[in-house]
Amino acid sequence: MRNMTDNIAAFACARCGACCAHQAIQLNPWEVWRLARQLGLATGEFIARHTDNAGLFLRFGPDGRCVFLTPAGCAVHPARPLACRLYPLGLESGPGGDEVFAPLPRHPACQGGESPALAGTALAAYLASQGVRPWLAAQRTYLALARELTAGLAGLEPLLRRRVEGELLGDGRHPGLWQDLDRAVGAGMDDPGEVLDRHAARLRGWLAGWRAGARRKDAYF
Description:
This protein has 221 residues and is an alpha+beta fold. It is 42% helix and 13% strand.
């Protein structure tokens, strides 16, 4: 883990909501699951109600504001996505998995406060204060899975690739096994770590099953 935060100050959110508008918040499947459980919904229902691109992005309203922003603040704050937890930091991951934390431009109307500069142990303390550890673990898991799946499906002729990716990613309106975690592993689980592990195993099993089917020249998984 590296950072480029030495010249920015630690952030104290004032809950003004300025940063909760006109954003593109991408969600991984585990974040969808956490948000769905926070609201007492199945992941498929949450995806239909509160996301765009069949679960890939958090939905924002016609006014450009997050659908969960209320006069009292974030309605799903305990389950907020990693992007919201890190703000005003962004996270970039290199091809080798190297993580770089870097400052993002602050909204002009942001009322958040500042404290001593983030560097070294101060960065670690800030991340800990935002409870990012399980969210970072999920992000790393899905980045690794994306690389595995991309490599596993490389070289397919276009028609077959679309067919296989439709099972994995859906058609843009209906989610596939990647986004709809309850569909992939079942809706009766409530342990976040176990859910993540089982979803990863399910996706790897899907890829292995497809490969075996391709070798037999039968239908894929």
